[in-house]
């Protein structure tokens, strides 16, 4: 199926709101990867025992041909993919491809974009309840007046996109079904970004935040639920290795912030975190039963 047909199918919305069958809402976990999932065993533990409440989709490089065991939650979950190059619209194409595939399952109501270096910070039940019961999507979107923000705006986007509409945000989003449909069905703004947003304008940091701010701001919390460390200078967030994994470190991420959730203040602001290197797998599996509430 071509991308055009896929997006067309995914953008369809039933006119009859009441479903003709009973369903349990699911969360779609969409993994945008280069190839393998080195932290896959941690995610296996996360999903274990919760069949029917989640869907998994993997977008890997088309040349990647490593297989996974048949009993893995990742078995048979790869979607048709195209090569992805950092800083180009191919990144957004992959994200929209993941969203569109997940939208084909009407049971999917929440959609989380993750990378191979992402980890869950809580057990599945906590994560599921947090997302399914939220009134809003979790998409970072803010007006950055600096060079890395408004400085990336291309005046040739005017008048379709004004600099006052321009927003920046994290690539790693979580959206509900209505917003996901809006993203994959957009044919007006995406071509403008494809034509005029090139490095140092990074389309994955600006397109969806700007689109949502422009048209659907009331559907968004304007914050991300994926924690990253930007305290170190550079274009990429900090990386973490096995020696970084301690109870104190993880609990600081899990409970060290305050944010709004459905009109109430909470210390649970992040459900996922990145960038965790492959050598964090063993220490994460050791702390997962007690700290994260996974079954041992």
TrEMBL record:
<keyword id="KW-0808">Transferase</keyword>
<keyword id="KW-0328">Glycosyltransferase</keyword>
<keyword id="KW-0325">Glycoprotein</keyword>
<dbReference type="InterPro" id="IPR003406">
    <property type="entry name" value="Glyco_trans_14"/>
</dbReference>
<dbReference type="InterPro" id="IPR044174">
    <property type="entry name" value="BC10-like"/>
</dbReference>
<keyword id="KW-0472">Membrane</keyword>
<protein>
    <submittedName>
        <fullName>Uncharacterized protein</fullName>
    </submittedName>
</protein>
<dbReference type="GO" id="GO:0016020">
    <property type="term" value="C:membrane"/>
</dbReference>
<dbReference type="GO" id="GO:0016757">
    <property type="term" value="F:glycosyltransferase activity"/>
</dbReference>
<dbReference type="Pfam" id="PF02485">
    <property type="entry name" value="Branch"/>
</dbReference>
């Amino acid at each position: 199926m071509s991308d055009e047909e896929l997006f067309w199918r995914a953008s369809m919305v039933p006119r009859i709101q009441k479903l003709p069958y009973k369903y349990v809402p699911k969360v779609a976990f969409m993994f945008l990867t280069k190839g393998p999932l080195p932290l896959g065993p941690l995610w296996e533990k996360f999903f274990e025992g919760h069949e029917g409440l989640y869907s998994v989709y993997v977008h890997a490089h088309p040349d990647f041909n490593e297989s996974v065991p048949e009993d893995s939650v990742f078995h048979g979950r790869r979607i048709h993919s195209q090569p992805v190059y950092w800083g180009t619209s191919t990144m957004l194409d992959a994200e929209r491809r993941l969203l569109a595939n997940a939208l084909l399952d009407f049971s999917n109501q929440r959609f989380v974009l993750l990378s191979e270096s992402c980890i869950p910070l809580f057990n599945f039940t906590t994560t599921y309840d947090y997302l399914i019961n939220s009134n809003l999507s979790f998409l970072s979107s803010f007006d950055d007046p600096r060079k890395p923000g408004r400085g990336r705006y291309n005046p040739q986007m005017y008048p379709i996109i004004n600099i006052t509409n321009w927003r920046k945000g994290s690539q790693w989003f979580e959206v509900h079904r209505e917003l996901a449909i809006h993203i994959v069905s957009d044919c007006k703004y995406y071509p403008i970004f494809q034509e005029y947003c090139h490095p140092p304008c990074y389309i994955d940091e600006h397109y969806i935040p700007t689109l949502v701010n422009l048209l659907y701001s009331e559907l968004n919390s304007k914050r991300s639920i994926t924690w990253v460390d930007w305290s170190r200078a550079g274009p990429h967030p900090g990386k973490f290795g096995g020696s970084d994994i301690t109870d104190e470190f993880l609990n600081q991420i899990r409970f060290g912030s305050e944010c709004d959730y459905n009109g109430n203040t909470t210390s649970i602001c992040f459900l996922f975190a990145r960038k965790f290197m492959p050598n964090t797998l063993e220490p994460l599996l050791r702390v997962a039963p007690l700290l994260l509430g996974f079954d041992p």
